[in-house]
Design goal:
Mean pLDDT: 95
Strand content: 25-35%
Strand order of the largest sheet: 1-4-3-2
Organism: Nocardioides panaciterrulae
CATH architecture of the largest domain: Roll
Low-confidence stretches: none
Number of strands: 8
InterPro entries: 3_dmu_93_MTrfase (IPR009725), Glyas_Bleomycin-R_OHBP_Dase (IPR029068), PhnB-like (IPR028973)
Number of domains: 2
Distance between the termini: 49 Å
GO molecular function: methyltransferase activity
CATH superfamily of the largest domain: 2,3-Dihydroxybiphenyl 1,2-Dioxygenase, domain 1
CATH topology of the largest domain: 2,3-Dihydroxybiphenyl 1,2-Dioxygenase, domain 1
Protein name: Putative 3-demethylubiquinone-9 3-methyltransferase (Glyoxalase superfamily)
Keywords: Methyltransferase, Transferase, Ubiquinone
Length: 158
Amino acid sequence: MSAISPCLWFDDDLLEAMEFYTSIFPDSRITGVARYSEAGPGEPGTVMAGEWVLDGRSFRGINGGPMHAGFTETVSFSVTCTDQSEVDYYWENLVAGGEESMCGWLKDRFGLSWQIVPARLYELLGDPDPARAEAAARAMLGMRKLVVAELEAAAATA
């Protein structure tokens, strides 16, 4: 059976990234590391490629050098959280050394974009009362890290 998994291009910090990500998510581990040999093209013994599992999902990565290294917001990973404590946990750990953005988005210290979203947001945005859904959306647009209580309060005032 075939499987699809993301492959991320790093300059030269793949192993550090794999260790960072697997330390944050449950059911995560590094499953393989390939190193350059004497045959090159990289420095013998340095990490060329790796595989890891995050929360049960397979990822691959390469240390491809600076030619194409660097991520943009055009690709991101979304983490749906069951409650505010999960939002806080993933936000605080992933943004460490990175930067906050708007509407639940952040960039981690490797420049990879993440969306940290409480499941409650989807419920509020899908509210059958359009005024409640719009109020929740407006509240979201004004936030960096999403706060469930504030989203609910905004919907309740509609």
